[in-house]
């Protein structure tokens, strides 16, 4: 999942201003028409830059991957390609959009050009001195519900919804980000996503009716934890590790602070039901009375992350990158579309049905991004 652009996790961490000052002494890099202005964050597998499209004067976030690093991870490069392919197909006003994929072939570096959110993440807003008011909370949360509803209707689950993956723009846009590129390079033995926001059935195997398991309900749990944190500035179930979190979830009741409106309490209980079969789905959440008086914002009055000014005499290093189309392969970049198709394994309808039956855990098969 596109590792948190501005959040704090093992893959992407926010950088302080001193690191920007160090970079100012070096030549600015310009990849095709994109001028890399400053670093927004970095992690084990990627580095994220604020970039200016010198053709349109629009700002973007550019995520850089070094393919040689991904080659040390099982299926790392092919996983990146699969998730880029999925991102190209996801088009929704509340989901971060992939605008361009660039490959610098001589250094084997890949850049993903993505929407830039100038107010940062919801996590950063929660850590600021002035928390968002109820009207903004409802607007932001309902925007993300729209995004998740779209994903679920297309058989896709997010698996890592949390405040640092919710991005805000001064023009009122709200984006859900982080779609697999980064987190999915974890070891298979690791929990996908952030344990504090993960549904209990995703963290451990406890006695559940298989017919009640539904990956989409895991996203609803994460949304519930996120809403709880936004409302009360705390997590509903805490622990120093996965074991402690699971113990708290499975043995302790959900505590709603005194004085909380009944409609909010009912909503949180419905979203944070330990049993997936009794948990709300996204459409249930969107019908909650909590959202009856929602206000649409065309401007969000949060601090804007201002891009640095570029001096007219700054040194610029021009880098030429190949613009990757939908058939492009990083492993075999010179293949034509026809040649690439020949490398695909063809299975019969019977073989595909057997595979689908084996993999399906619910009445509907969801894709984990």
From TrEMBL:
GO biological process: regulation of autophagy
Tagged with keyword Transferase: yes
Binding site for ATP: 63
Domain of life: Eukaryota
Claim: ATP-binding is one of the keywords in the record: yes
CDD domains named among the record's database cross-references: STKc_LKB1_CaMKK (cd14008)
Keyword field: ATP-binding, Kinase, Nucleotide-binding, Serine/threonine-protein kinase, Transferase
Any single GO CC term annotated in Swiss-Prot or TrEMBL for this entry: cytoplasm
GO molecular function (one): protein serine/threonine kinase activity
Domain (Protein kinase): residue spans on this chain: 34-291
Family: Belongs to the protein kinase superfamily.
Protein name: Serine/threonine-protein kinase stk11
Organism: Tritrichomonas foetus
């Amino acid at each position: 999942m596109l590792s948190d652009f501005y959040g704090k996790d093992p893959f992407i961490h926010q950088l302080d201003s001193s690191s920007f000052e160090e970079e100012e002494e070096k030549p600015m890099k310009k990849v095709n028409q994109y001028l890399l202005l400053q670093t927004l964050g970095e992690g084990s597998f990627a580095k994220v830059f604020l970039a200016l499209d010198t053709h349109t004067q629009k700002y973007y976030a550019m995520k850089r991957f070094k393919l040689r690093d991904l080659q040390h991870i099982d299926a790392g490069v092919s996983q990146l390609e699969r998730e880029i392919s999925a991102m190209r197909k996801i088009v929704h006003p509340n989901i971060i959009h992939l605008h361009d994929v660039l490959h610098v072939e001589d250094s084997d570096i890949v850049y993903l050009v993505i929407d830039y959110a100038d107010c940062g993440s919801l996590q950063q807003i929660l850590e600021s001195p002035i928390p968002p008011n109820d009207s903004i909370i409802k607007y932001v949360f309902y925007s993300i519900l729209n995004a998740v509803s779209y994903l679920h209707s297309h058989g896709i689950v997010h698996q890592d919804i949390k405040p640092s993956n919710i991005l805000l723009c001064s023009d009122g846009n709200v984006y859900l980000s982080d779609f697999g590129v980064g987190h999915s390079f974890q070891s298979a033995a690791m929990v996908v996503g952030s344990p504090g926001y993960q549904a209990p059935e995703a963290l451990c195997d406890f006695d559940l009716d298989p017919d009640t398991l539904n990956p989409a309900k895991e996203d609803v749990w994460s949304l519930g934890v996120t809403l709880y944190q936004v409302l009360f500035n705390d997590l509903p179930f805490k622990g120093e590790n996965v074991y402690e979190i699971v113990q708290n979830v499975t043995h302790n009741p959900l505590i709603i602070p005194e004085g909380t409106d009944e409609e909010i309490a009912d909503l949180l209980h419905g979203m944070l039901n330990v049993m997936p079969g009794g948990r709300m789905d996204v459409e249930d959440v969107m019908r909650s009375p909590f959202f009856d008086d929602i206000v649409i914002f065309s401007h969000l009055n949060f601090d804007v992350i201002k891009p640095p000014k570029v001096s007219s005499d700054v040194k610029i290093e021009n880098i030429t990158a190949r613009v990757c189309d939908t058939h492009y392969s990083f492993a075999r970049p010179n293949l034509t579309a026809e040649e690439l198709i020949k490398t695909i394994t063809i299975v019969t309808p019977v073989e595909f049905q057997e595979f689908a039956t084996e993999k399906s855990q619910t009445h509907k098969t969801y894709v984990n991004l």
